[in-house]
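Render this sequence as a predicted structure.
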Amino acid sequence: MREVIVDLADRFPGLRGQILEDGDLASFVNVYVGGEDVRTLNGLDTEVDDAATVILLPAMAGGSTG
């Protein structure tokens, strides 16, 4: 997983600060490999097969108290 994230950040430098904090996943970014949250697996050390689907999903918060 680390290689995938670093490659993505290298290809799109503006994303680096959005997806990484101090060399780890930013707290507000959820990453899934094959439908599993990598934080419940091995984090950035999670293995990613060539055919795996990787999803980066920013956490959403907020709303109205209305």
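Summary. Helices lie at 2-11, 13-19. The chain has one domain: 2-58.
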